[in-house]
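REVIEWER CHECKLIST
Item 1: Sequence provided? yes
Item 2: Single chain? yes
Item 3: Sequence as submitted:
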Amino acid sequence: MKTVSTLKEIRALVDRWHRNGKTVGLVPTMGALHEGHLHLVRAARQACDRVVVSLFVNPTQFSAGEDFAKYPRDLKKDTRLVAAEKADVIFAPTAEEMYPAGFDTSVTVGPALTQTMCGLSRPNHFQGVATVVMKLLNLMRPQQAFFGQKDYQQTLVVKRIAADLNTGCDIVVLPTVREADGLAKSSRNAYLSEEERRLAPSVYQALKLADGILQVGERNPKELLDAVRKRLKTESKIEIEYVAAKNAETLEDLLILSGRVLVAVAVKLGSTRLIDNIVVDVPTGS
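Item 4: Structure as written out by the authors:
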């Protein structure tokens, strides 16, 4: 396995693979790798001839006052983990390499997918995500790119740019990988204090409650969301940012809970923002 840090290097390497008829899988990450990321690398390794893992803390998807400066970075550890999964290349560029002097282009996805849920509190986030992902797809022209369901809204944004901008890339979304107590694995879990870590599984417990409510026949979104909020509020240290029940394909609000239903939550626990979600197939007209 090798590590490259320039656009010229990664383009030359991937161009050679394409000329030789190799399929390319891309796993975009911001580093601070955990089992959720490694699950994506394994899936890419199984599906594709060559695998690139990008490690880039993308400044354009952080808003003012967010944790860009303190976001965990450990290239040596990440390299060791990726090598153990037999990826072919790590792409670890600098911000200056990705956004050189004079860079003045961005990719914007329409408001239906970006001006709801996380987009309400992070107004520039999805523009930053869409721009960096499009740059990576243009650089490597992968046949497949692999993402985790935990960042569900992000996966819809990425699918939209991949389709609308004719990348030819299949966006593969894999289930959220969780700790034994249900907490979704996330690089930001490292920020949690011991007490906050003990409380954090309440987020997934609230989502499981929502699943149970749907399974017994509740179809009123207000009743469902009120129940989830009530469960979260049993922990006084959890601050709710949003609880949402949406059409899982379009993020439209639902008058009646039916079809593929996304139930998504964002909370603050201390200074740490946690997100999680489930998707439930609810029979239409039941």
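Item 5: Key structural point noted by reviewer: The mean pLDDT is 97.
Item 6: Recommendation: ____
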